[in-house]
TrEMBL record:
The protein's role, per its UniProt record: ATP-dependent specificity component of the Clp protease. It directs the protease to specific substrates. Can perform chaperone functions in the absence of ClpP.
GO cellular component: HslUV protease complex
Domain ClpX-type ZB: 1-55
GO biological process, alphabetically ordered: cell division; proteolysis involved in protein catabolic process
Protein name: ATP-dependent Clp protease ATP-binding subunit ClpX
Chain residues that bind Zn(2+): 14, 17, 36, 39
Length: 449
């Protein structure tokens, strides 16, 4: 039988599809195998699809602003304007994070596939990069600034930390570096860098790092005021920071990781005492002479902060660059007696419900009369401590009862009225039968209006 002689046995062919170099545009040949340009594009497409699927898996489940606002209503009383502002800001922030995850996956470490290049060419917004928007909360103490930020993190299911700006110092000086904030966020994420890069940081007492009257009263370098603002600029805007996993950056041979802060939402808060006077001075300019027009608008301190401008914050002592990185500004209203009474009873984790649960663990039904709730709220309002002082009042009111109750038998209920809150009386104990205990025991259980 004759043998067919082929003259193209040595012609290079694609190891995947078997096509020769004459059948494709380009054939990349290696020592032991070859691959054509068509198979390369197919492999790039497969890898890009896997990256897109990974990006979709890593993307945060994003509730709508209305859903976020509804969730905030369960835990935060009042502050309707602030809750709406924060809902939109958080939604836009994490929408931008998801967009960047998707874009990074499509780019494939800087190498786009043919489909990606075609889509980018047809999309006029493809090269638009959405800037990061952090949040500044203004309002007196006890109005719920920290509680709002913590609740937002709970809703979004992301790591959350609270940092105090007054403990920070500029790098190279005694005190905490700004990277310590990121280190705490990394610990809150259980060491998962990817989760930490999507967390929320609440930076409290931001007003304390401002330079009062725009001047530095110290003869030495301002390492805890303006220096901290300058150190915060980069991580607020978004940078890749080196974060030590243990100890501090000053520690030798400490292990560190790289964290991208573009996906971290920074919520800065402060009471900004004196800012209202700066705003009033700007709004209260008036003419001289008879019939001069007074242009102060008769705004009280609660409403005057709504008129704040970047120029007012700069005059207060914040750097213009620092202000520019906090474009979303929200003002929280001071809580009145009605608001504080609602804080005590309405939220899902209201303080009265927390104490009722503590007492229920001992088989005791704790009851607060409406007059007692109003008395607690009025006391907190009179002290000027806001919602922050409610727990201290409750602790003082129930301290003796919580001390003696575990040692007492037969007690099934405790009733707190206004006299117990004012200190003129004590909480009344309710028993099923005759009781021998003291301080206001009710001998027979009865319904309390």
């Amino acid at each position: 039988m004759s043998k067919v002689i082929r003259f193209d046995d040595d012609t290079p062919r694609c190891a995947f599809c078997g096509k020769s170099e004459r059948q494709v545009k380009r054939l990349v040949t290696g020592p032991a195998a070859s691959i054509c340009d068509e198979c390369v594009e197919l492999c790039v497409g497969i890898i890009a699809e896997e990256r897109r699927q990974d990006a979709d898996a890593d993307a945060l489940a994003l509730p709508t602003p209305e859903r976020i606002d509804e969730a905030l209503d369960r835990y935060v009383v009042g502050q309707e304007s602030a809750k709406r502002t924060l809902s939109v800001a958080v939604y836009n922030h994490y929408k931008r994070v998801n967009m960047e995850l998707r874009e990074r996956a499509e780019a494939g470490d800087g190498q786009e596939d043919a489909i990606g290049r075609a889509a980018r060419a047809s999309d006029p917004l493809a090269d638009v990069r959405v800037a990061k928007s952090n949040i500044l909360l203004l309002g007196p103490t006890g109005v719920g600034k920290t509680h709002l930020a913590a609740t937002l993190a709970q809703i979004m299911r992301v790591p959350f930390v609270i940092a105090d700006a007054t403990t920070l110092t500029e790098a190279g000086y005694v005190g905490d570096d700004v990277e310590s904030i990121l280190q705490r966020l990394l610990k809150a994420a259980d060491g998962d860098v990817a989760r930490a890069e999507h967390g929320i940081v609440y930076l409290d007492e931001v007003d304390k790092i401002a330079r009062k009257s725009g001047e530095n009263t110290s003869l030495t370098r301002d390492v805890s005021g303006e220096g901290v603002q300058q150190a915060l600029l980069k991580i607020l805007e978004g940078t890749v920071a080196t974060v030590p996993t243990e100890g501090s950056r000053k520690t030798r041979d400490s292990e560190s990781v790289r964290m991208d802060t573009r996906g971290i939402l920074f919520v800065c808060g402060g009471a900004f005492v004196g800012l209202a006077d700066i705003i009033r001075a700007r709004l209260g300019a008036h003419e001289s002479g008879f019939g001069a027009a007074w242009r102060d608008r008769d705004l009280d301190d609660g409403r005057i902060l709504d008129e704040v401008t970047p120029e007012d914050l700069a005059e207060f002592g914040l750097l213009p660059e620092f202000i520019g990185r906090l474009p979303v500004v929200s003002v929280l209203d001071e809580l009145g007696v009605d608001d504080l009474a609602a804080v005590l009873t309405e939220p899902a984790d209201a303080l009265t419900k927390q104490y009722r649960k503590l007492f229920a663990e001992d088989g005791v039904d704790l009851t607060f009369t409406d007059a007692a709730v109003r008395a607690i709220a009025a006391t907190a309002a009179g002290q000027g401590t806001g919602a922050r002082g409610l727990r201290a009042i409750l602790e003082r009111t129930l301290r003796d009862t919580m001390f003696r109750l575990p040692s007492m038998d037969g007690v099934t209920g405790v009733v707190v009225d206004a006299d117990a809150v004012d200190g003129t009386g004590r909480p009344r104990l309710v028993c099923d039968g005759a009781a021998t205990q003291d301080f206001g025991v009710v001998g027979v259980r009865r319904a309390v209006a």
